[in-house]
Specification:
The complex is a heterodimer of chains A (350) and B (327). Helices cover 41% and strands 11% of the residues of chain A. Chain A contains twelve helices and nine strands. The longest helix of chain A has 26 residues, at 25-50. In chain B, helix 1 (6-20) runs parallel beside helix 7 (151-163) and helix 8 crosses helix 12 (314-324).
Chain lengths: 350, 327
């Protein structure tokens, strides 16, 4: 495989604090808090899964929080955001209601998807989150359609698809890039290149680790960014999203990152990950998006260790309360299995 | 009343929808040169503009997915697949996405997309331009499946499908396009209220079918009268969710059943009809063994002689009815 990403895929690099230049302090604080909330929510899910309190699989994205947080800062609630199997952060960056996520993962009717979806099928249209599903690349073409609809409806809303490096191995993604470009769809393709698809390293799956080569092939303007630098993501996405809203057609951003946990559930997954070493994981944890932003903000003087401790304790407390509440919430009624098959809740008699 | 054939009735359905519902748009291959689809979409692009009649790259999967996504965003898209066979590339968007979003997301997301797929048999086109795969789709909960066999249904079920908030697979058949009928102005019908139609009443045998096979059944019933056999003909119209009440009632009267289907026999829709009806009949109801008649369990051959033998004919249905009745 050609290492076209260069240092971006080298776990020993990009450990230094991020540049916070020209970003408002309130935005910095909001993004930092959002990343901390997502991290702590996923840590709670990891623990609960380990303790077998959660029945189904959870695909955790701890380590990748900067992407959804940096992108979402420039989104509006009427945009159309689509996720995939690892989408807790995509949703929480738009709506940090971890109680509803806990309830959903536990299959309770108070959850984001009324307890019918679990971790892998999430919905919160009021915040712009149209849906996530675990069929790899299953929502990419849907996002393009929602973007085309935005154009037909005369709005300045955009479609957003979060796409992993594994998903670009699916044919429909290339059809979707082409369709979006040919029809000038207001569409934002957000590539989360975490170098792994399940257990397989990208070097075993593709001839190059640079996913942006597909943007070039489809004449879609793109940016390649450190996916653990929330400030760089924020700035790049803000510019690209403005261009999309302006009617300039689709944009593409590739963000290189890494997940702390394995493909699924709470383990580091060193055993089943091909080419995933403990050293690598430890090095990537040094490229932590939260730590790097926090350090910069403290240096700038707009944040302090004390503030961070207070905030983290408050979130820990809220998470315990939310988790207990979700655990005690009711399951959907048995009738829900048939009631939700069709929009009309029609009782089929024969 | 306007004189229509099945193809122009579909066209009239498109025109009605595009004139009355600004959220309707059409997407699919060949729409700016719609010779693929007979006379059923002529000049829609000229009348309603290329922004609403969208011809596409050769990407069945992404285009179907895009239609699903647009429907989630409040549009009423119709995606057109000129051959049902080509649509197989789009199975994920149809089966995993459109059919399941309502359920998986707690009844909060409604992909009200209509997928028009066309069965285009004959003409020595062979196995990949000919399939009638309605049974596959009728097996998918959450996906409504419609097969109009009459001129009126061609128009009115298309309109009902598009106005329905659920995903609908609308399947028409090129072998039906020449049928003619007079049609009154459109009166919108609710897809949820649609049931099988008894297109001819009779007393000796119930013949159940859908799509093109229903045309064969109507013609067969006319011939059977000459043989002193009174056939009751039932056109299913909506295959999923499938309602069997009318068929059960009919078979209780005729006490004989023949099912004819345009797909292949094994694990096909004909078996579902027999099963659903049989389990609701009294044990001693049937006077004779029930019978299914469908395509052989083989892909469609291209060679003319084999092709003619492969597809069902009116005579096949007549003979089958006689066989059920031991005549």
């Amino acid at each position: 495989m050609k290492n076209d990403l260069g240092g971006l895929s080298d776990s020993t690099k990009f450990h230094e604090p991020v540049s916070v230049d020209n970003i408002d302090n309130n935005v910095l604080k909001k993004m930092l808090k959002s990343m901390i909330i997502i991290r702590k929510t996923e840590q709670q899910l990891a623990l609960a899964r380990k303790e077998k309190l959660i029945g189904g699989p959870v695909h955790l994205g701890a380590g990748q929080e900067a992407i959804a947080v940096g992108i979402s800062e420039s989104l509006q609630s009427s945009d159309r955001v689509f996720g995939a199997h690892r989408s807790h952060s995509h949703l929480l960056a738009l709506n940090p209601n971890f109680y509803k996520l806990f309830a959903e993962v536990l299959g309770k009717e108070t959850g984001f998807s009324k307890g019918m979806g679990g971790s892998m099928h999430l919905f919160d249209k009021s915040s712009g989150f149209y849906g996530s599903v675990p069929i790899v690349a299953g929502t990419v073409s849907l996002a393009v359609g929602a973007a085309l609809a935005a154009k037909m409806q005369g709005t300045n809303d955009i479609g957003v698809a979060y796409i992993g490096d594994g998903a670009v191995e699916e044919g429909v993604v290339h059809e979707s890039f082409n369709l979006a470009k040919v029809h000038n769809a207001p569409m934002f393709f957000v590539i989360e290149n975490n170098l792994f698809a399940s257990h397989m390293h990208i070097s075993l799956r593709q001839p190059s680790d640079l996913i942006s080569r597909f943007a070039i092939a489809n004449e879609i303007p793109y940016k390649l960014i450190d996916g653990n630098d929330v400030c760089a993501i924020y700035k790049a996405a803000k510019e690209q999203i403005a261009e999309i809203r302006n009617g300039d057609g689709p944009r593409f951003i590739e963000l290189v990152t890494y997940r702390h946990y394995g493909h699924v559930d709470w383990r580091d997954d060193v055993d089943v990950g091909v080419d995933r070493s403990l050293d690598d994981i430890e090095n990537w944890k040094e490229r932590d998006p939260i730590l790097r932003l926090s350090k910069s903000m403290i240096t700038k003087g707009c944040w302090s260790m004390e503030e961070e401790e207070v905030f983290k304790k408050e979130i820990d407390r809220e998470i315990i309360i939310a988790w207990d509440k979700a655990m005690n919430d009711p399951y959907p009624p048995l009738s829900a299995t048939l009631d939700h098959v069709y929009a009309t809740n029609q009782k089929e008699t024969s | 009343m306007h004189k229509h054939n099945y193809g122009t009735a579909i066209l009239a359905g498109f025109e009605y929808l595009l004139e009355n519902y600004p959220e309707v748009f059409v997407i699919g291959q060949g729409l700016w040169s719609p010779w693929y689809v007979g006379n059923s979409m002529t000049d829609l692009d000229k009348k309603f503009g290329v922004e609403r009649i969208i011809d596409t790259p050769v990407s069945e999967s992404a285009c179907t997915g895009a239609a699903v996504g647009a429907s989630l965003a409040g549009m009423k898209p119709i995606v057109v697949h000129p051959r049902m066979d080509f649509m197989i590339y789009a199975m994920d968007s149809v089966v995993n996405q459109a059919a399941k979003w309502s359920h998986m997301l707690g009844g909060q997301a409604h992909p009200g997309v209509t997928i028009r797929s066309i069965i285009n048999r004959g003409g020595e086109q062979g196995a990949q331009h000919s399939q009638a795969l309605h049974a596959w789709f009728a097996h998918v909960p959450g996906l409504r499946v419609v097969m109009p066999s009459t001129v009126a249904d061609a128009r009115d079920l298309l309109i009902a499908s598009v106005l329905c908030p659920d995903p609908v697979m609308y399947i028409d058949d090129r072998w039906l396009y020449e049928q003619e009928d007079e049609l009154p102005p459109v009166n919108e019908i609710n897809l949820l209220d649609q049931r099988p139609h008894i297109t001819q009443t009779g007393t000796d045998i119930t013949i159940v079918s859908s799509g093109h096979t229903s045309l064969l059944a109507r013609d067969a019933a006319a011939l059977l009268i000459g043989k002193n056999i009174s056939a009751e003909v039932i056109d299913i119209r909506v295959l999923n969710p499938f309602h069997a009440d009318e068929i059960v009632t009919s078979v209780k009267k005729t006490r004989n059943i023949l099912v004819a289907d345009s797909g292949t026999l094994s694990a096909g829709f004909s078996g579902e009809i027999i099963a659903k009806v049989a389990e609701r009949l009294p044990v001693d109801c049937l006077k004779n063994k029930p019978m299914r008649i469908a395509l052989p369990d083989a892909p469609a051959p291209t060679s003319r002689l084999l092709e003619k033998d492969y597809y069902l004919s009116v005579e096949d249905l007549v003979k089958a009815a006689e066989k059920v009745l031991n005549k």
